[in-house]
């Protein structure tokens, strides 16, 4: 339940890996127990991110950064997202 905002600004924390940023998206306490399931869900939706999970987020191209931003929103385990 709840709402998550997916920001257009994709630059913060560019030194973190793709997977670290996704895990950070699961920061609401109630999302943590579902971390593994949500990671699998995100990687199914965005296969390109799965291939790039060990890479630094700052090395992704613009489209990949957008995918990562949306995927982080999904990781919050909310019912509604807004862009």
Structural key phrases:
single chain, 83 residues, mainly alpha, two-stranded parallel sheet, 46% helix
Largest sheet: 2 strands, parallel
Helix content: 40-55%
Q: Care to count the β-strands?
A: 2
List SSEs in N-to-C order.
Answer: EHHHHE
Question: Overall mean pLDDT score?
Answer: 83
Number of domains: 1
Number of helices: 4
Radius of gyration: 12 Å
How would you sum up the global shape?
globular
Low-confidence stretches: none
Taking the alpha carbons of the first and last residues, their distance comes to 17 Å
Strand order of the largest sheet: 1-2
Structural class: mainly alpha
Approximately how much beta-strand content do the residues carry?
Answer: 5-15%
Per-chain topology:
Blueprint: E1 3-5, H1 18-25, H2 35-45, H3 47-51, H4 62-75, E2 80-82
Parallel strand pairs: 1-2
Helix pairs in contact: 1-4
Would you give an account of this structure?
The chain is mainly alpha-helical and 83 residues long. The protein has one domain. Helices cover 46% and strands 7% of the residues. It has four helices and two strands; from the N terminus they run βααααβ. The protein has helices spanning 18-25, 35-45, 47-51, 62-75; strands spanning 3-5, 80-82. Strands 1-2 form a two-stranded parallel ribbon. α1 (18-25) runs parallel beside α4. It is globular, with a radius of gyration of 12 Å. The model has no long low-confidence stretch (mean pLDDT 83).
């Amino acid at each position: 339940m709840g709402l998550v905002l997916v920001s257009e600004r994709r630059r913060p924390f560019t030194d973190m890996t793709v997977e670290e940023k996704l895990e950070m998206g699961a920061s609401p306490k109630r999302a943590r127990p579902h971390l593994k399931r949500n990671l699998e869900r995100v990687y199914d939706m965005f296969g390109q991110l799965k291939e790039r999970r060990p890479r630094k987020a700052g090395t992704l191209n613009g489209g990949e950064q957008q995918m990562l931003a949306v995927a982080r929103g999904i990781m919050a385990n909310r019912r509604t997202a807004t862009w």
